[in-house]
Specification:
It is a single chain. The chain has eight helices and eleven strands. The chain is of the alpha+beta class. It has one domain. The longest helix has 15 residues. It starts with a strand and ends in a 10-residue tail after the last helix.
Length: about 240
Amino acid sequence: EPIIVFAADKTEPGAFNLPLFRVFADPFNTAGLIIDPRLHKGFSFTVLDVLEGLKVTLNCPEEMYDLLALLGTTGRYVIYKIYSREGLIAASCSTTRLSLIAGRYVGKDDPVCIVRTQSGLPAVGEVLEAFAFPHLVAGWMRGSHYGPLMPVSLKEAKCTRFDGPPRVVALGFQLNNGKLIGPADLFDDPAFDYTRMKVMEIADYMRRHGPFMPARLGPDEMEYTTLPQVLEKLKDRFEKVK
């Protein structure tokens, strides 16, 4: 059985929300949802509210809109686990937000995700396809900016420009007689060159914003960075408008 381990750098657990939704709930990404009777029933998503420590399980496709209402808020609601409708575990993600534990910025969360594939689950190519779109994720420099997620090989996994852009690697293993065979460096492939070129175009565009939103995170997320220390010294200088 093929297993893929995704490991991301310079971002947070919510970075996996969009690609995992596409893998397990979007037929425009995963053809098996339409043509494979074993996938046709859909999947169950367990979503964690990282602020309140609560979880909820929603079924797709029938509760897709409710699921998207949560997953779009990537800083709060993150995919925790995904199951087939028969209860087979299909994916599991790390959900720890370090800043919520420490109460301040102590580095990005660098999340990981394990996805099972084939035999009643999405194919390897369907799982990887979701990462061909370089969606924007929170993190990047000082954990305070949005940047495109770049699928890279292990040799290109080092973050450089503005401590990024945020990156993700995909390591493929084969489970054989209780042993993991591999890994195969799945993003070490020219098929993702176009995606990487788009990443740099998007990254350059976002960087031109400097310290302005929407390149910089919103005030709720910035609360856990070092920005409040800078703003504190200005607090007493504000006056009421008459």
